[in-house]
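Hi support team,

I'm opening this ticket because the web form for multi-chain structure prediction keeps timing out on my end. I have pasted the exact lines I submitted so you can reproduce it. The total is 362 residues across two entries, so I didn't expect it to be a heavy job. Is there a limit I'm missing, or should I split the entries? Thanks in advance, R.K.
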Amino acid sequence: MNNILIISNRLGIGGAEKLLIELVTFAQKNNINPTVLILDSYDEEHYDRILKTQGVKVVRTRINNIKHFRAPAKMMRSAWWAVKLKYFAAKYYKSIHTIGLYNVDKVFDTVLHSHRFFWNVNNAVQFPKREYAYQQEIFGNPNDTIVSINKYQETELFSQYGNAIKAKMVLAKLFINDQD
Amino acid sequence: MIRINLVARVAGDKNAFPDLVNMAHQLKQQGMTGFVLTFIGAIEDNAIYENTIRLAEQLGVTEHIAFTKRSIPMAQLSEELKSGYFLNFTVGSFMGYSSIDSINLGFKTIFCNCDEFLADEKYDYINVCRNLNEVVKLFLLIDKDAETIDKQMMANNQLMKRSFLLTAEDASLLKSLMLPNG
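Hello R.K., no limit was hit. The queue was backed up. Here is the completed structure from your submission:
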């Protein structure tokens, strides 16, 4: 089975979340089975319902700071996902996509897989002094791929992080699935 | 009454609110008074919201600024808001999903580059503006002859819509990202 995992931190109304939905829809159209993992947030949001109608499994849990003694069931679930993604991710998923570089620090050391794709959904102009606020370490693994969604991002990243970028770079345009 | 809408959460990663209040001020100074600028989105950063309100007071444009204070899917907006102009920020020629949604829903959509470093990019359409000064000029034109500008805008938006559909090459790339080993 062609399973992939898509990780984000919210499913409210927003551009990054819309990208996630379009990726999910594209995957399903291509016989790929996506699972959505929402980190550190347990409240149902706008796109939860839409994903449910599409038959997509949405998991809301933590994989860092998993101690949660007042909610043992949640803690057990977190522990399971933390172990699964650190040691067995390749067994379950063909690739892992993290939406938003702002989420990468949460997964960089805890979700291990040889095909990790980190989607950059921001531009430098959205940050003070036009400087991305990410640790350079997240670009340091040559097996990872940074996915840009516009032609400016790669230049912006290289001008700020330079040789610290060892990850591969690829440009994939924003898209909407055909309404067929 | 001309309705100008911006769909954006009032949050720290969106920094255009003071600029838009200034735009409202410029429009008023140029003699355009029949307009309301509505920010459509949840207030996630109260300090930004308060600062925006304060700036509007200082510039005397409070009556031209409104907030929905909650996120609303674009398709579910009131007919009054839907009939307005939707201002979308772009980074150079890059348009995000709120732009795509807005075009898809057939809204009158205006694009404004928000990165001054990219103001020299090529902007071919009347409703694709290199900065807020051009947006002000566009609204002044709309104030004079909305029908003509609206027609042009809607025709342009239909052309842009096509560029968001996946080509076979795009789809193949996307599939290869999802299934790197085939």
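A quick check on our side: Chain B has a mean pLDDT of 93. Let us know if the file doesn't open in your viewer.
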